[in-house]
Amino acid sequence: MKIGFGSDHAGYELKNILKAHLEEKGYECIDYGADGKESVDYPDFGRLVGEKVASKEVDKGVLVCGTGVGISIAANKVKGVRACVCSEPYSAMMSVKHNDANIIAVGARVVGEDLAKLIIDSFFEASFEGGRHQRRVDKICNIEK
Length: 145
What we know:
CATH architecture: 3-Layer(aba) Sandwich
CATH class: Alpha Beta
CATH superfamily: Sugar-phosphate isomerase, RpiB/LacA/LacB
Strand content: 15-25%
Distance between the termini: 28 Å
Mean pLDDT: 97
Largest sheet: 5 strands, parallel
Helix content: 40-55%
Structural class: alpha/beta
Shape: globular
Number of strands: 5
Number of domains: 1
Radius of gyration: 14 Å
Strand order of the largest sheet: 2-1-3-5-4
CATH topology: Ribose 5-phosphate Isomerase B, Chain: A
Order of helices and strands: EHEHEHEHEHH
């Protein structure tokens, strides 16, 4: 699976940690994020990763900013993106199982490194359940039309 990573300056360090964590698990990771701690604008990276996911250039995305909120809002403006910000593993898992989320966002100023790894693992270990949830995801997608 190919994963696109994006971050702003606040998420730069955690992005690198999570990218290395997933690479160790055998994922192919592509870094579209900030390349340092100098101030940059999170919408640029949320949009870029969103576009890469929507175009199927990558399978899923991971976004990191200070809270995870702003960067996920930006990504969700891209048609076909279902990005969620999660601060614990259960929501990360359920976002995939029930909402077919294709991007996860975490806040570097909200969760620590170990918790962030658990959140990311829960997201990537989950599978969309389909069934009644497909009908609901279809309704979300229809809003974009």
